[in-house]
Amino acid sequence: MACDPLRWGVLSTANIGRVAVNPAIQSSRNGVLMAVASRNEATARVFAEKSGIPAHHASYEALLEDSSIDAVYLPLPNSMHREWAVRAAEKGKHVLCEKPLALTAGECLEMEAAARANDVKIMEAFMYRFHPRTDLVIQMVRGGKIGELRMIRSAFSFRLTKPENIRLKPELGGGALMDVGCYCVNVSRSVAGEEPAEVQAWASWGATGVDVEMAATLRFASGVVAQFDCALTMERREAYEVVGTEGSLFVSSAFLPGTNDVIVEEHHGRDRNTRHAIQGADEYRLMVEDFADCVIHNRPVRYPVVEAARNMQVIEALYRSARNRGMPVSL
Ligand SMILES: NC(=O)c1ccc[n+]([C@@H]2O[C@H](COP(=O)([O-])OP(=O)(O)OC[C@H]3O[C@@H](n4cnc5c(N)ncnc54)[C@H](OP(=O)(O)O)[C@@H]3O)[C@@H](O)[C@H]2O)c1
C-alpha cells in the first residue's frame, strides 16, 4: 500500500509541534516523523536533535522538495496557513493544518481546491474532536438524554504574558477568537448539529489591535442558542455546558483534557447527577492516526475542509459584529 507508514514532515519548530503533535506522530501506529523545517538552519538542526527527528531542512521550501515526505503537519502562524498548505499540496504533500485552518472561509476553499487539483488530503487539526468524549456528548444529545436541546455555553480563556507571542500580532492572524474562541464556535456548531442563522459579539481590543476578550451569542434556526467567551487576558478556563429541556451535561477541561481519564457530568434536577467516566486518550495521537489512515487507505478525511470553512464563516461574522459594537450579523 502506498505511504504505509505515512512519512511526515513538520513545517516549523512551533511550540505546539514540540509539546504535542510531533510526539503524537512519533508514537503513532501508522506514521513516522522524518524531518522538520525552519526558517533558520541552526534552529532546525537543534530542534531535530532534541526531538529525535532524523532530518532537518533550512527552509520550508526545502522540506516540500523532500521526496521522502508524504504529508506535512503545518503549525505556522494562522496568516501563513493558506500559502503553505497550497504550496504543500502543489508539491503533492497531504496536509494536516493547525486550527483555525485559515483567515477566512474563502481561503479555506482555496486550500481545498489546491488539495483537490493535486489529489492530496487536507484537514484542520481540531484535535478535541478525536477524543472519544466528544462523540459521547454528541450521542447523548442526539439520543435525547437531556430532552430537547436549548442552549450551549462554552468558554476558553487563558492569560498570555509574552508580548512577542504570535497571538498578539494582527498581521499573523492573532486574537482570542482566532486562537481559542474558534474551539467554542466549533463545539457549539457540532453539538447543535446545525449552522447559526445570526450572531452577535462584543470584544475588547488590545494595544496591538487584536481582540483580547470576546463574548458572543450564536442563534440557530431551530431556536437553540449558544453563548461563549474567550480571552487572552483571563484565568485559564476551558469548559462547556449543554442544556436541554430535561437535563444538562457539563464537560470540564473540554479541549485539552490531557491523557488521564475524563468525566462528563449529567444533571437532572437537584438530585439525579451521574458522572460518566471515559478512559483517557491522547487526542493528538488519535487525530494523526486517523488522518494517516485516511491517506494510507485513500478514504475521505473525517472533517472535510467545507466544515472548516463553515467555522470560519461564523468567525468572520463574529468579527464583523464585534467591530460594530455587537451589531447582529445574519449568515
Ligand atoms: N491544536 C492545539 O492544541 C494548538 C495549540 C497551540 C497552537 N495551535 C496552533 O498552532 C499554530 C502555531 O502555534 P504555536 O503557539 O505553536 O506557535 P509558535 O510556537 O509561535 O510557532 C510558530 C512557528 O512558526 C514559524 N514562523 C514563521 N514565520 C513566523 C513569524 N513571522 N513569526 C513567528 N513565527 C513564525 C516559526 O518557526 P521557525 O522559526 O522554525 O521557522 C515558529 O516557531 C497556530 O496556528 C495555533 O493556532 C494549536
Topology:
Elements: E1 6-11, H1 15-26, E2 31-37, H2 41-51, E3 55-57, H3 60-65, E4 71-74, H4 81-90, E5 94-97, H5 105-117, E6 122-124, H6 132-142, E7 149-159, H7 176-192, E8 196-205, E9 211-220, E10 225-231, E11 233-244, E12 248-252, E13 262-268, E14 272-278, H8 283-296, H9 305-323, E15 329-330
Parallel strand pairs: 1-2, 1-4, 2-3, 4-5, 5-6, 7-10
Antiparallel strand pairs: 7-11, 8-9, 8-15, 9-10, 11-12, 12-13, 13-14
Bound molecules: NADP nicotinamide-adenine-dinucleotide phosphate.
Average pLDDT, rounded to a whole number, is: 97
Structure ligands:
NADP nicotinamide-adenine-dinucleotide phosphate
Going across the major beta sheet, what is the strand order?
14-13-12-11-7-10-9-8-15
Distance between the termini: 43 Å
Rounded Rg = 20 Å
What count of helical segments does DSSP give?
Answer: 9
Q: Would you mind describing this structure in some detail?
A:
The protein is of the alpha/beta class. It folds into two domains: 6-126, Rossmann fold, CATH 3.40.50.720; 128-284 and 312-330, Dihydrodipicolinate Reductase, domain 2 (2-Layer Sandwich), CATH 3.30.360.10. Helices cover 34% and strands 30% of the residues. It is built from nine helices and 15 strands. The chain has a nine-stranded mixed sheet with strand order 14-13-12-11-7-10-9-8-15. The longest helix is centred in the C-terminal third of the chain and has 19 residues, at 305-323. The structure holds NADP nicotinamide-adenine-dinucleotide phosphate (NAP). NADP nicotinamide-adenine-dinucleotide phosphate (NAP) is lined by residues 12-16, 20, 38-40, 43, 75-78, 98-99, 125, 127, 166, 172, 179.
